[in-house]
Amino acid sequence: MYTLVIHGGAGNITPAMMNKEQETQYTAGLKAALDKGYDVLKNSGSALDAVEAAIIIMENDPIFNAGRGSVFTKKGLNEMDAAIMDGSNLAAGAVAGVRNVKNPITLAKAVMLKSGHVFLSGSGAGEFALTNGIEMAPDNYFFKKSRYDQWVKIRDSDYTQLDHEGDNLKSVLPQTGHKFGTVGAVACDINGNLAAGTSTGGMTNKRYGRIGDSPVIGAGTYANNTTCAISCTGHGEFFLRAVVAYDISCLMEYKGLSLVDACNTVVKDKLVKMGGEGGLIAVNAKGEHEFSFNSAGMYRAMRNSDGAETIAFYSK
Ligand code: ASP
Question: Which of 46, 113, 256, 261 is the most exposed place for a label (fewest CB within 10 A)?
């Protein structure tokens, strides 16, 4: 069975926070990404290409906090992180703190395939993008009024904010800085190969140079054919410290846990005890998938070759 699973961020996503128009927008945004990525799998494409294709659609859609819709840093800039991993050979590529790159996931894939390295950051990653024909975009491409207003409200404070928290100041965390809204995809292709990818603008008002979990292999992103592919979204500092994605893979590899038990152990027990809010998507080499989150909701969707399809926002 081949399967594509995507997310568009976790957070305080409840029916009370959303109006009909937003529900329609997020449904359409997730569906467009699902269609694009699933087509790759249907045409016998690789999990890696399906993950990239789905993420590009979400990076181009300003409703998500990645690529075009990225949030603003403390300096009023857009700095993006992304990673991609191929579970068939454990190859990985990642970028952190990149600016003016239209599709950071494509840059991460180019790092994996062409740089001889795994992880490039800041101006070095930007230079690699320019010399490898990666599409760039001017600052105004990344400007979205709602994200800008979100930042203006807190720019003179030490607060950072989760993307999907609206004006709920309870969710504004002092010093740690934070916002959800990241996008991600995991896939199992027709050959049973797995891949994972994650892309984000990070958190509103994050410090200059702050890097979250999303581009860190083993924290926000991980894929290994023998266990699972994982893409996380949530309060990155906690996901980094809990090494979430690799921890789930290890629970499966060394302790023999099922996909669902491994995900729930980390998301609903370990992270909760640490105070880390968020969630993840997961798939194994049988094409079985899991959505696991400890926040009120997570934008999520999946489709598989058995004909199952889900698009959901709120907790079950
Ligand atoms: N995990 C991301 C970060 O901390 C944010 C998110 O998932 O929305 O940068």
Answer: 256
Sign, CA torsion 226/231/235/237: positive
What local confidence, expressed as pLDDT, does residue 228 receive?
A: 98
What is d(CA 169, CA 126) in angstroms, rounded to the nearest whole number? 35
* Ligand 1 atom at minimal distance to the Cα of residue 11: 8
Q: For residues 146 and 148, what is the distance between their CA atoms, to the nearest angstrom?
A: 5
Neighbours of 136 (CB within 10 A): 15
Q: Mutual orientation of helices 47-59 and 20-42 as an angle, nearest 10°? A: 150
Write the CB contacts of 144 (distance below 8 Å, at least 6 apart in sequence): 62, 68, 69
Model pTM?
0.92
In angstroms and rounded to an integer, the radius of gyration of the C-alpha atoms of the chain is 17
Residue nearest to atom 8 of ligand 1 (CA): 180
Backbone angles phi, psi at 168, to 5 degrees: -75, 90
pLDDT tens digits, one per residue of 171-188:
444 333 334 679 999 999
Nearest to 119 by CA among 101, 92, 138: 92
3-314, CATH topology level:
Glutamine Phosphoribosylpyrophosphate, subunit 1, domain 1 (3.60.20)
User: Rounded to a whole number, what is the distance in angstroms from the first to the last CA of the chain?
Assistant: 24
Beta-carbon contacts of 297 under 8 Å, excluding residues fewer than 6 positions away, are 10, 11, 12, 13, 14, 164, 313, 314, 315
- Which are the contacts of 13, defined by CB distance < 8 A and separation ≥ 6? 164, 295, 296, 297, 298, 299, 313, 314
Using the predicted structure, report yes or no on whether residue 157 has a pLDDT greater than 80. Answer: no
Q: Of 118-127, 155-164, 168-177, 206-215, where does mean pLDDT reach its minimum? A: 168-177
